[in-house]
Write a structure and sequence with these properties.
alpha/beta, 6-stranded mixed beta sheet, globular
């Protein structure tokens, strides 16, 4: 709470110190930026590249991203001349659903969904091992959820991840959403057009977050009906849209 309450200039100084410190500890080629195309990871991408413009950038295309996200990532990768790699999973989202069902609404209660592991974690772990990466810069913020705040309090800005085998660095951990948007505007960073459709980016058919029904039903009604049918629902009534 104390860190989240600090003024933005103080937080920004810490962010730059964190980036400089870790780029002194690790060579840029030993690190990568995990980029989802969302506002948080795009801000991290911009900030880290001020110190190492050709640091490797990994975009994990799960195959069920918003089309606008994929177009945005490809366009910005070309405009910014990124050292860019696009990862793809060996198993599709729908194959995961057939085996294990749809992800439950809280990963902190039920653990990491199988689809998250196969679509996101596994391709990244493979890339880490193939490239010998030692550290990653990721756009995680503590404000995003109660579970993230617990993890932030326990692990802090960086820690060695046994799952990924690298030092996981979260420079903007203590930024609030309004501060992320403020810096995005101040630095003139392009914004993913997906935000005109949804408050979040990521897997379009994801059922692992609160409000998934309203979001999918509004963005893609046919996809919503397909998901409800696959869940075994007999009623195909769309949820009421907020006025």
């Amino acid at each position: 709470k104390d860190e989240l309450a600090k003024p933005l200039p103080e937080k920004l100084r810490l962010i730059y110190l964190v980036i400089e410190w870790h780029l002194a500890e690790f060579k840029p080629e030993e690190c990568y930026i995990g980029w989802s195309g969302g506002k948080d990871s795009t801000l991290v991408l911009f900030l880290v590249r001020q110190f190492a413009s050709q640091i490797p950038v990994l975009f994990n295309n799960t195959g069920v991203e918003f089309p606008q996200t994929v177009e945005f990532v490809h366009r910005l990768a070309e405009e910014w001349k990124l050292n860019f790699t696009e990862l793809h999973p060996e198993m599709s989202f729908w194959e995961c659903v057939e085996r294990w069902g749809f992800p439950p609404p809280s990963r902190y209660r039920f653990g990491t969904p199988k689809c998250c592991y196969h679509l996101k974690e596994k391709p990244v772990i493979k890339a880490i091992r193939e490239n010998g990466f030692k550290a990653s810069f990721i756009g995680v913020t503590a404000w995003e959820s109660w579970g993230r705040r617990i993890v932030a309090g326990r692990l802090g800005i960086c820690h060695h991840s046994k799952v990924y085998g690298v030092c996981r660095i979260r420079p903007i951990l203590y930024l609030r959403p309004d501060e992320v948007w403020h810096l995005t505007k101040e630095f003139g960073i392009p914004v993913n057009p997906t935000y005109t459709l949804s408050k979040r980016v990521g897997c379009l058919p994801c059922t692992g977050h609160l409000g998934w029904e309203e979001q999918i039903a509004r963005v893609n009604p046919k996809l919503y009906l397909l998901i409800k049918r696959k869940m075994g629902e007999k009623q195909y009534q769309l949820p009421l849209m907020p006025s």
